Sequence to fold (94 residues):
Amino acid sequence: MDISSFTAEEIKDPTGILTGKRYEFFLDIDVDEDDELYSDQGIRLRVLYYKGEEDEKILNYHFQDNATKSILDFALDEEEEIIIGKFCKAQLAE
Fold:
């Protein structure tokens, strides 16, 4: 799984109740044709990411088929989740 492009946007908390900042990442990923996650139109990973004063982490994520925009019932394995978390963290550091 390789990230071919991405977008990121801060999610504003209009109430001011939540601590830290939250970001929404859309990662366009390339998946091998023999992978069960593969789609001709491509796959996107939507990630909700939290950045606080003391920690950063993935809050939630889901895979989406680019053609139908439907949510796919797949999960990242532990190693992939670490890679995605590091990617998000690195993008916010820039």
User: Anything to note?
Assistant: The longest strand covers residues 2-11. The mean pLDDT is 92. Residues 78-93 form the longest helix (16 residues).
